[in-house]
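Why run this: before we spend reagent on co-expression, it is cheaper to look at a predicted model of the complex and decide which construct boundaries make sense. The entries below are exactly what would go into the expression plan.
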Amino acid sequence: MADEVQSWVERIIAADRRAIARAMSAVENGEPVGREILQGLFPKAGRAYIIGVTGSPGAGKSTLVEKLAAEYRRESKRVGIVAVDPTSPFSGGAILGDRIRMQSLFGDEGVYIRSMATRGHLGGLALAAHDVVTVLDAAGCDVVLVETVGVGQDEVEIARHADVTVLLLVPGMGDDIQTFKAGVMEIADLYVVNKSDRPGAERVEQEVAAMLALSPRTNGWKPAIVKTVATRGEGLRELRAALDQFHAFGEQSSLRRTRRREQWRWRLEEIVRQRLFERALERLPEDALEAHAAAVAEHRRDPYSAADELISEFFLPGS
Amino acid sequence: MADEVQSWVERIIAADRRAIARAMSAVENGEPVGREILQGLFPKAGRAYIIGVTGSPGAGKSTLVEKLAAEYRRESKRVGIVAVDPTSPFSGGAILGDRIRMQSLFGDEGVYIRSMATRGHLGGLALAAHDVVTVLDAAGCDVVLVETVGVGQDEVEIARHADVTVLLLVPGMGDDIQTFKAGVMEIADLYVVNKSDRPGAERVEQEVAAMLALSPRTNGWKPAIVKTVATRGEGLRELRAALDQFHAFGEQSSLRRTRRREQWRWRLEEIVRQRLFERALERLPEDALEAHAAAVAEHRRDPYSAADELISEFFLPGS
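The model came back. Tokens follow.
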């Protein structure tokens, strides 16, 4: 490792805020130096409790994350927050709003906040988000909260790649909105009924309980359902307690280890896929791709034989 | 091509509903025979007008698509509908609801409806959706309506890979919800303010107009803004007229051709990526991947050097 990268890595481990911020940008943007940094940081990572928080837009994720961070801060735990924001504000600006809401945490030296855009992560948003988490983990955060909208496939991957997945539900949002990407409802470890002072909270709780009764988990964990009113801080201690309980359960059972191994198996496959394609693309001349695309667009040839021809010609000759 | 596939292809081109339905399932599920069928169908495809309709959950996409289909049916045009449904119903069941709402179209021999789940499309949802569109296109549909939620990256890709992208907005949904994946707002060719009998419709229209004035399109097209109340069929003729206008513009200018060429360039790259990785994975022993994942999960080694080792060992020896 170059001396410069080495000293950068050391500053991150020593929790230098500037070094951390620069490293998060480097890994998020896929800069070549980001990879070197991650390699240097990796032996120091793996200690943080990574908490994925997901739910529909408007469910109150940011507020919950902010209050939960404050809970951990009362015990001087160091907290990282990664907000994966898939939205482009149309009127009003949700992004700015979220960041303003989290303002109570700014100026606190024990909190590190990073907003990630979802644009331009061709290499995979879930991988990029996890790389940012790795930086915060190696920098000594005890807890890293990862906030995502539970709609797109990428966002679901991010939520699943935490140590614990918390799903936020809200009463009275209407059926159209209270829906999730297939599979999200089934994977959460903890369910939070937020805005539980609204009518319908009981019903949401009962529905989750009914779903859990119908399809109990095979991993030995009985998911908790916690009611909160995040804006007023209600239920946050209960949520914190449930998170601690799950953490302890994961350590005692083999759940945490098994899950991390599965996650790394998936990520490793993704990294291989990405790197392989990067290297392969270098061999593919732009004009060959263009020429084939033009022929296909005019339906003079079909895309599958065109792809096979490109593969045979440039990647796997003789196959 | 095998005789069986050949006769299947012929039946699709002759608009045999059963053959079409089976082909859509085959391509959606990535069955090997699906590829052969697509190759057989490809020379017949490329004639349909592919209309992407996107917007937040609850914006009224399904209703709009249903009414728009009815508009085209009045002129006996054959219509395909592909609804890409990323949601898992939690309470109430949005999926069932949508399909029930489109019931007015069932029994109409000139309409083909396909709901696609977003689960399990590791090869790329956008590609799979386009393959389904190709089947409907080759089967002689004059128009194919592709409905997606404008939130995840996959959904955005689907919307962009149409001939025309229609974005649905609704007044009064609140800032949290009226947000889109970065980039969606900027790519639409037509903007629909649906539920325009609600207060705030004017404001939405003005905001879109202001956005368009700030960043005019470079392709020569001035996006139309159409107000509708889809449930009552209001504004549907105006929308249809705007779609016709865009279609004519695309033919006269080089826009349609340029866009299709770009889309195929992207898809071809995706197909190459997918095929290359499929072939590569065959060479990667499961136990090697597992062993590396275990070492990484325990932070005994970093994932990047592990990935490089796997690549050098199994894919690109000597590189």
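The CA atoms of residues 184 and 240 of chain B lie 21 Å apart. Chain B touches chain A through 86 residues (CB under 8 Å). Bring this page to Monday's planning discussion.
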